[in-house]
Design goal:
With 295 residues, the protein is mainly alpha-helical.
Length: 295
C-alpha cells in the first residue's frame, strides 16, 4: 500500500487546476445523485450516505497505516474544517431538495470570491490583476445565470448561500493545513466527523432506503465523495487558493449539463451566455498561471 503515501509537493499551478476541474466534475456527479436521493429518502439519510460512505471507503484504503494517518499536527483545525464542510453539505443538500441543480450551484458559486479574499487576508496570498479579472468575469457569468430578482432568489436560496460561506472557510483551512499535513489524514478527518454525527442521528431523523436504486445511489455517493475530496485536498496542497478559485465555477457548467440530461432542467440563452463567460475566464486564468512570465 505504498501508493497511499503522498509526499509534500511543490507548487504546481497547472496540475492544481487540472485536479480542481476533476474535483468539480466529481462533486457535480455527487450533487446529482444527492438531489435524486433526497427525493427518495430525505436530506438526513442522504447526508449520512455521503459521510458514512466516504468514511468507510477511506478507512478501507488507509487501514494498513491507520495509526500514522490518524496523527495530525492540527487537531483543532481538522475539527474546524470538518465542521465547516459538514455545515456546507447540510446547507447545499437542503437547497437541492428545494430549487434546481444549476440554480443551487450558481448561488453557491459565490464562494470563489470569498476564497480569493480569504486567501489574501488569512494566508498571505496575492490576488493580482489576472486573478481579480478571472474571478470578476466568472462572477458576472454566474450572476447572468441566476439573474438576481427572479424566482431563483426565494427563501430557499439561503441554503446555497450558507453553503458558499462554509465551503469557503473549509477551503481556506484545508489550504493552510495542507502545507505540511498528509492528504489522507485530512481526508479521513473530513469524513469521520460527518459520519459519526449522522450515524448517531440516523435512528432519530433518518429514513432507511427500501429500493435497489436508493442503495445504489448511496454506494455511488460514498465513493464519489471520497474521490472528490481527495482531489480537492491534493489541489489545495500544490496550488494557491486564489489560483484555483475561478475553476470552482466549472461545477456550474457540469451542474447545468446534468440538470438537462437527468432532471430535464434545460438551460436558456442567459444560462448559455453566462456559462461561456465562465469558461473563457477560467481558460484565461489557467493560461496566465501556467504560461505567462511572472510580473
Amino acid at each position: 500500500m505504498a501508493f497511499l503515501h503522498i509526499p509534500r509537493p511543490r507548487t504546481d499551478a497547472g496540475r492544481g487546476i487540472a485536479l480542481m476541474i476533476g474535483t468539480m466534475l466529481l462533486f457535480s456527479i455527487l450533487d446529482s445523485c444527492a438531489k435524486e436521493l433526497t427525493t427518495r429518502i430525505g436530506v438526513p439519510t442522504t447526508l449520512w450516505a455521503r459521510y458514512a460512505g466516504q468514511t468507510l471507503v477511506v478507512l478501507l484504503l488507509v487501514l494498513p497505516r491507520l495509526g500514522v494517518t490518524l496523527r495530525t499536527r492540527y487537531p483543532g483545525l481538522q475539527l474546524a474544517r470538518s465542521v465547516c464542510l459538514f455545515a456546507a453539505t447540510f446547507c447545499f443538500f437542503n437547497g437541492l431538495s428545494r430549487i434546481g441543480l444549476a440554480e443551487n450551484t450558481a448561488i453557491m458559486d459565490l464562494n470563489p470570491v470569498l476564497i480569493t479574499l480569504g486567501g489574501a487576508l488569512f494566508l498571505g496570498e496575492k490576488i493580482g490583476l489576472r486573478r481579480a479579472l478571472g474571478i470578476g468575469a466568472a462572477l458576472i457569468g454566474a450572476l447572468i445565470i441566476i439573474r438576481p430578482g427572479t424566482e431563483v432568489f426565494s427563501p430557499a436560496a439561503i441554503f446555497p448561500l450558507g453553503a458558499a460561506l462554509f465551503f469557503s472557510a473549509y477551503t481556506l483551512i484545508t489550504r493552510f493545513v495542507g502545507r505540511d499535513e498528509d492528504a489522507w489524514t485530512s481526508l479521513l478527518y473530513t469524513a469521520a466527523f460527518g459520519g459519526v454525527v449522522m450515524t448517531a442521528l440516523l435512528p432519530v431523523v433518518g429514513q432507511m432506503p427500501t429500493d435497489a436504486v436508493s442503495f445504489g445511489l448511496i454506494a455511488v455517493i460514498g465513493c464519489v465523495a471520497a474521490a472528490g475530496q481527495l482531489l480537492l485536498i491534493r489541489a489545495l496542497q500544490i496550488s494557491e487558493a486564489g489560483t484555483l478559485a475561478p475553476f470552482t465555477y466549472c461545477g456550474l457548467l457540469f451542474a447545468t449539463l446534468w440538470g438537462a440530461l437527468i432532471f430535464s432542467e434545460y438551460p436558456d440563452a442567459a444560462t448559455i451566455l453566462g456559462a461561456t463567460i465562465i469558461v473563457v475566464s477560467g481558460l484565461y486564468v489557467w493560461y496566465r498561471e501556467t504560461h505567462a512570465k511572472p510580473a
